[in-house]
């Protein structure tokens, strides 16, 4: 049984004693303050009135597992520490330095104690963390940048936004409004994935679905979340002046912006926004908290993919404000028939080489069914990497997944398809889109199907070749014989949207 001995009981000791008394094992507090002894006994905490610095006080005490030296005075603690170390050489001793330590005291504490609690250092560390750490400085800079906006702010997610992008946009709107700036969470494209629609509808998130023809004149400032370049994976002008960029993807070109925070170590942009919400120190709206936690869980595959300590910290910050009943509803939407059909076609049409499976699902009406199909293929025995693609009008959309440790899907898709389209993403989750201008000139369905058949073969071969080619070497086969099928487009920076 663990035996914890507390010598001296000042201000810090009272807090520690409350915690220690709740744990299993024995505890004994020795202090020369009789009023404290009486109070502790009233709270059913064993306590004894004696001088904690006198070696005779502990001469006949059983050997403790842990000793906490905890009076408010440095001289008393030093004497108690010396007596405790002499009497119990093998015990773990945690010593509170007290409020008036000099250099000699610090040296002696360092020599005898296993752990030292230094109030001056603790206060200094907290002050640095609150005002001078990189994250604190970023929060201050973001607040200043937002406060300087004169007019309305557009917070723009990437095209066809996923939960991470949606949640991040909503969170930045909350932060902007907390400093008096009116803001809109905006996106281009569609929110077609069942879970994403459920998230927006159940949490009643306010989003503006913009069209390319919409005027941007009503906005005085622009922020990009979960992507970092205007005109790349959004439909903003490429020369748009950007005020704020917050993202966790690696950039593939110069990132414009007055304020730029790229956290490639974070598993989700929602993690970064959660940290800002915490730094701004205001109550997090339950809808925003639920969206952010869901965004983190989706991007990290429930904390199993590309996860970092920051993601767990963000989850702990959000947890008290999350509406768990709505979160469960979001995570368990019914699958639409078209999505199930796409998954079925992917399983039926798959071509497998070793642990890599590629499948064409033909014509699609919902591009968000592709990543779900890629996930389902990945769940099959013996498959570690998947690519699923489908055709919509004159576009081909690709979605890839992998759990193989030696494959970087983002680089693989860029190697295979950057020259004939646009590609990007993470090591384990990526996407691409290719424009088939030649389909628009096809005369009949037979010709269309013939072209589609050729394109399917090209995509499969390029992906398999990119997988087999060593990292950093562009794919060369099929280039001259197939590039004429495709029209070059800009890079997407978020593989999920592709």
Automatic annotation (TrEMBL):
SUPFAM superfamilies to which the protein is assigned, alphabetical: DHH phosphoesterases, NAD(P)-binding Rossmann-fold domains
Coiled coil location: none
GO molecular function: nucleic acid binding
Gene Ontology BP term (one): potassium ion transport
Cited Pfam families: DHH, DHHA1, TrkA_N
Residue stretches making up the RCK N-terminal domain: 5-95
Domain DDH: 154-296
Protein name: NAD-binding protein
